[in-house]
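Severity: low
Component: inverse-folding endpoint
Summary: output formatting inconsistent between runs
Steps to reproduce: submit the following structure tokens with default settings.
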């Protein structure tokens, strides 16, 4: 057989390449789905020395452009071909880092396949003894055996996932290269060649004489290590190799391979065995005492790979600044805090049942309900007792009346569903009537679709907030703010931040960080395995333990390896505490701190309602010419962050301006804070309402008693 003698450069058939890349992309997608289900796997192949075997099936996709000859006459062109053969071999994986490994592979690679092309009718075909038109096909079957080397880099991009990517080069050494060209009659079925009376005939066969012994390719792929045990992994892989040079030196013929393989890998990483502890021996007296001029021999202690603990300590100021070597000042003040009573009860979608998060009492428990007993509770706990606060106050003010307005989201299943609004209002009325023994003629039920002032209609957050019952009274005392009085401790450094590190994180079995005051542990945190690089501890939450006069808070970081050996590092923070008792005994100037969290703005609003103006009149009564007033505005997380920051600033300014116009404090400042996710849970409608607020703090100096 002869081939067209013109040298053809690298030929890559675009449709074939597209099929290869599409197949690989689909395989990667399926592998991603598989790895996501195995994400929780605890046995990692990261940073491991591995060796193993692999085998599979390889698709060989030919791309060429050379003529087919019959008896010296060109009669067709071979361009595309395919073949499927089984490769097998051995591999190793040598770690370079936590994510990268060298992955050399030796394999027996069979690149055999076949070209096919349509052939012209040469006139030597008979149908029932007579020449006739026929469909012919020429086929060039090739045998290509290779000893191959894959020089690959393995990359594991995800720390807690055994998915990996491969990339590198493949080198093929051709050990055998032969061909057989045949011609076949495709139709009609009763046609035969005149030369042999058959439907198939061999035109030529032999060995390729112009084979490039060495071929090279660009390879890339994906795989996943599935742990079968602590030391054995099963790894399905897909690897694509794109040939960069021709199989023959005088004809363009390139091969793209797509290998589907399964490897079994064995972890050869040696187990870490901690060295034995040093043997303690009693010192022996010198047989010959040293003269004064002689030096004692230097004793070199054995060094063992024990993880050492170390940390740097910084204070975090109320403004969020980080300061080194902090000192801590704690001062007690008399404080009065005013909390709003949010007069809305929110309901689940299409439900008229009062949600379980709202506190409900039995009738016999109402006599023992004390609003003062729970005033020290967190804001949400106070809010969830709204029905009980209202019931208690309605009993205290027997002339008061209450309007209970049921609403819905007016969207989806709740659209125009005033029956649902009615049922919600009646559920609240029935609780107040039956449990708090309120006369029905004092409780009026009103029904709406959307509330009079709705949140954004047709949005998830807005719909949640519109599914509510509103409580309004003709006596302002029924839904007036809650007043909390007591001691406040102001801490100059509310938090300390630790940057923790060790000489050998991988050897740490346990770690612990202790805070001690006067020798007593007041807070501790710890865990198994390596330490987090950074940890913050709240000092403001340590409570009474800080009010113990001057002294220090000692911090100790301890790490321990699997053999129980420990290492520790220490640091301390100076504490200077000033209690209310000390101020009075020592006639030290003091101050009264009043906090007002009374402003609850409607959705996306910054205007002062009559209710908000009434609240400011209460604040103005407490402001003296020596007072310092600070106003902070907030917003919930609905909407964009930039808009929420501007909205919160507008809320703070309008309150500050109104206070300034009706009182004369020594100083007043306002600032918008935007969203503070630590204040209230914005996943709940009540959390978002409480976040639409302005916080006012009034500090007024108190002259010491003489």
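Observed output (run 2 of 3):
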């Amino acid at each position: 057989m002869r081939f067209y003698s013109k040298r053809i450069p690298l030929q890559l058939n675009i449709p074939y390449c597209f099929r290869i890349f599409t197949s690989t992309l689909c395989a990667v997608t399926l592998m991603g789905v598989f790895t996501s289900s195995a994400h929780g796997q605890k046995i990692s192949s990261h940073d491991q020395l591995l060796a193993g075997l692999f085998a599979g099936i390889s698709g060989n996709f030919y791309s060429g452009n050379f003529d087919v000859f019959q008896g010296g006459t060109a009669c067709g062109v071979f361009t595309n071909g395919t073949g499927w053969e089984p490769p097998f071999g051995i591999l190793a994986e040598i770690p370079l880092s936590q994510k990268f490994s060298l992955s050399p592979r030796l394999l027996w690679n069979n690149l055999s396949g076949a070209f096919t092309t349509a052939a012209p009718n040469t006139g030597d075909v008979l149908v029932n003894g007579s020449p006739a038109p026929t469909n012919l096909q020429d086929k060039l079957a090739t045998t290509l055996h290779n000893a191959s080397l894959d020089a690959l880099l393995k990359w594991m991009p995800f720390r807690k996932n055994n998915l990996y990517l491969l990339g590198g080069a493949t080198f093929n050494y051709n050990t055998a290269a032969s061909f057989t060209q045949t011609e076949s009659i495709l139709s009609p079925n009763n046609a035969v060649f005149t030369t042999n009376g058959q439907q198939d005939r061999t035109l030529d066969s032999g060995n390729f004489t112009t084979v490039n012994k060495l071929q090279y390719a660009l390879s890339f792929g994906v795989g996943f290590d599935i742990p079968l045990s602590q030391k054995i992994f099963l790894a399905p892989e897909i690897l694509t190799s794109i040939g960069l040079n021709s199989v023959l030196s005088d004809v363009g013929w390139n091969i793209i391979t797509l290998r589907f393989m399964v490897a079994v890998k064995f972890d050869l990483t040696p187990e870490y065995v901690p060295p034995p502890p040093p043997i303690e021996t009693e010192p022996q007296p010198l047989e010959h005492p040293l003269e004064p001029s002689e030096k004692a021999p230097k004793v070199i202690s054995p060094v063992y790979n024990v993880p050492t603990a170390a940390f740097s300590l910084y204070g975090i100021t109320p403004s969020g600044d980080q300061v080194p070597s902090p000192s801590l000042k704690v001062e007690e003040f008399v404080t009065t805090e005013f909390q709003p009573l949010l007069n809305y009860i929110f309901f689940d979608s299409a439900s008229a049942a009062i949600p379980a998060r709202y506190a409900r009492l039995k009738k016999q428990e109402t006599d023992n309900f004390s609003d003062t007993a729970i005033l020290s509770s967190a804001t949400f706990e106070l809010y969830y007792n709204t029905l009980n606060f209202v019931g208690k106050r309605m009993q205290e003010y027997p002339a008061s009346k209450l309007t209970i307005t049921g609403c819905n989201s007016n969207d989806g299943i709740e659209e125009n569903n005033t029956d649902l609004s009615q049922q919600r209002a009646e559920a609240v009325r029935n609780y107040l009537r039956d449990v708090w023994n309120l006369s029905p003629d004092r409780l009026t039920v009103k029904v709406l679709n959307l509330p009079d002032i709705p949140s954004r209609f047709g949005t998830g957050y807005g719909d949640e907030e519109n599914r509510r019952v509103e409580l309004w009274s003709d006596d302002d005392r029924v839904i007036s703010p809650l007043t909390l009085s007591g001691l406040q401790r102001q801490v100059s450094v509310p938090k300390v931040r630790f940057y923790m590190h060790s000489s050998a994180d991988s050897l740490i079995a346990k770690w612990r960080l202790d805070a001690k005051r006067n020798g007593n542990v007041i807070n501790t945190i710890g865990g198994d395995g390596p330490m987090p690089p950074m940890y913050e501890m709240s000092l403001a939450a340590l409570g009474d333990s800080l009010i113990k006069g001057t002294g220090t808070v000692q911090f100790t970081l301890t790490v321990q390896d699997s053999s129980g050996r420990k290492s520790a590092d220490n640091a301390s923070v100076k504490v200077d505490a000033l209690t209310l008792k000390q101020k009075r005994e020592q006639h030290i100037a003091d101050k009264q701190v009043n906090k007002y969290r009374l402003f609850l703005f409607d959705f996306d609003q910054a205007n002062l309602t009559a209710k908000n103006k009434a609240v400011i009149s209460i604040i103005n009564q407490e402001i003296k010419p020596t007072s310092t007033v600070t106003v902070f505005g907030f917003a919930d997380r609905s909407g964009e962050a930039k808009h929420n920051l501007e909205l919160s600033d507008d809320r703070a300014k309008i309150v500050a301006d109104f206070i300034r116009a009706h009182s004369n404090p020594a100083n007043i400042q306002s600032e918008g804070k935007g969203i503070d996710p630590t204040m209230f849970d914005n996943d709940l409608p009540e959390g978002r309402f409480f976040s639409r607020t302005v916080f006012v703090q009034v500090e007024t100096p108190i002259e010491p008693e003489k």
